Amino acid sequence: MALRTAGSVLVVFLWSVTVVLGQNGWSVTYTKKSICAFKGLTVELSCSYTYPSGRVTTTFWFTKKDAKGNPVSLSDDPDYKGRVKYLRDETNGHTLTITSLREKDSTTYKFRFITDQTGGKYTGDPGVTLSVTALQVKVTPTWWATSKTLTCSTTCTLTGKPTYIWYKNGQHLDESTSPQYKDPVSSNYVDSYSCGVKGHEDLHSPAVCVQGQDCIRVTYTKRRICVLKGSTVDISCTYVGYYSTTSTFWFRSDKSTPEDLTRDPGYTGRVKYTGTYRGPFTLRITDLREEDSAEYRFTFKTYNFEWGHSFPGTTLSVTGNTTLYDTTVNHIELQEKINEPSC
Length: 343
Fold this sequence. Notes:
This protein is mainly beta.
């Protein structure tokens, strides 16, 4: 398992053997043969290459070919627009970074380089297979039928020994190296369960009902939001409570106890709640400050129930940095530069 600190690349669980293919001095060595990564995160694919003579003029990664059979660089592929970065080092190494991973990014990636010599083109086969996965809770009946078994599953195998985290009605329930929850659960129609992996708690599975299709749960519209300092942001969720609520509010997860943001002096005059039962219920924060960067969670109370405080919410990043982009209209008229947040 490889993991970097916050703000850098997050690569999840990897399994591999080094692959070296080549002929007559041409070769590509892939660091990993297969990679399993979580949806929404960032992954790195790397390789090194050799060639007999000349100078390398072009290097790129690809998954597709055009109508003429020529490989299409990921940087020119609309499906990867703004999500890929190439990094070449001085020792013939090359790294592909893909951000905001999507399940449809699951495919084989190949590296190609071109030299200034006649016929100096080479593609490294078979490439690197990337599998993008999301967590899901599977509910199966036990043999005695009065209880059910919960399994935290993925579409590709997580190697190492990941620690699974279980939540019941938004509250931390248990941790285990087994993907199955340790005890069968009763078929209480109001209870919902979710799972996560330690170190990536914000990537938990959707909450599932043990009995039927409806149960108590909170679902966030977005898990991460990046905005500019001084702007306004809407953070929203939907929730199901079944009983009349006595209170509904948003809070910062870094507080020792949940505190309604409308009563927090640091947000005076800058916070507004909108929405109704089953939502979306929205937190609006205006005149954003960099210190507003935090994880925001929603909770509600009834006379006999309170949604737990452990369930991950929406992470907000407020920045004063921008990335400038040039765009054109019909490739003739140059538009103004657009400032976009860089988080």
